Amino acid sequence: MGSQMRPExxxxxxxxxxxxxxxxxxFGPLSDLPLGIIVIDRRNNVRFFNAMAGYFLxxxxxxxxxxxxxETMQDLKITEVLSTGVPxxxxxxLINGRLLKCSLAPIEMGGQIxxxxxxxxxxxxxxxxxTQLAELRTKYEMLDMLL
Length: 147
Known about the structure:
Blueprint: H1 13-27, E1 36-41, E2 46-49, H2 51-57, H3 61-64, H4 77-84, E3 88-95, E4 98-109, E5 112-122, H5 124-146
Antiparallel strand pairs: 1-2, 1-5, 3-4, 4-5
């Protein structure tokens, strides 16, 4: 059996408008979560960049929108996810003194990857508390052995 080829999608102004509406309707309500969200399109341009992502990266979201992602970020795993379609989960990155847990995923429409998204969660305080707890356990165990 021969492989079937999918017809290439023709990107009309209406299709681009549909993409914009999809981004706004899907990611818009997530804007206020304490989660950084960045979405890039097939051309590696930033299409969605919420305030929390701006806070984490030290960038005004409005200055990142529409620009190539490589002008916004150093770590470009998001472009790899866009080209391969392989998601990455729970990657840890140290950015601007904050330990971020990042997950990246492709977004498909009509069987084609049209976007890639990165979700960033600040784990700085969680890791700090875990470290403090581990230190307290060690001190407790030492005291317990002495008594």
